[in-house]
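thread from #wetlab-drylab

HS: before we spend reagent money on co-crystallization trials with flavin mononucleotide, can we at least see a predicted complex? here's what I'd submit
DV: go for it
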Amino acid sequence: MNIMELYEVLEKRRTYRDYSEKEVSDEVIDRIISAAFKAPTNDHLRQFEFVIVRGRENIAKVIAPLAKNMAAFKELVHEVDDTNGDKDKMDMFADALPEQQRMLMQSGLLILPFFRQSQCPLLQPKEQSSLNFFASVWCAIENMLLAATDEGLGTVFHIPVGDEPEKIKRIVGAPDDYEFACLLTMGYPIDNAFLPKQKVIDIKSRIHHNLW
Ligand SMILES: Cc1cc2nc3c(=O)[nH]c(=O)nc-3n(C[C@H](O)[C@H](O)[C@H](O)COP(=O)(O)O)c2cc1C
């Protein structure tokens, strides 16, 4: 791959929340997961495990703990509508918030990227570097998003809130010393999938030479 192809993939990666029913093959999933293991990792060990859930019924069982938070999400949509905030951001939230459960089921493929959280509990970090395992899994996930884009897939993830992580870990039978970073879905987007406008950043204004 030359440099232009990589930058094209970076341009094409978008968060999709509308998928067709076309199935993503095991072969494609294997390639995307192999990309995860090419990312840098803090302890050299790449202690990632992936739970793949296929089929809407099975996915519904795994994401059942999300149901109780949907009411809260809907409240948030109203809050978002009421703010005088950034229009692109409001468009994104208005589209995304009510979609969370549906978007995770629609493509019939859900991936839970697990990482081994040794040393201290994820939510009780002692210092910034305590979050290294979490940082590593996100490097791995970004590789997956880019690999999926290169395969012609759209991607989206839901960040679990409240007690969702513990409940979902129990449902899938994960070991205690493993955490999952997100509920990741990928699939073939429908033709007219809604994509909120991306912010256009003046790169030069974000780069500081020698001093901020
Ligand atoms: C840390 C993080 C958390 C996110 N959480 C969610 C989420 O819970 N649900 C969702 O639908 N999208 C989520 N997103 C996707 C963002 O909404 C999306 O990346 C952003 O609107 C920019 O759009 P783009 O990815 O198409 O460039 C998250 C993205 C990041 C980086």
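DV: The domain at 14-206 is CATH 3.40.109.10 (NADH Oxidase).
HS: ok that's useful, forwarding to the group
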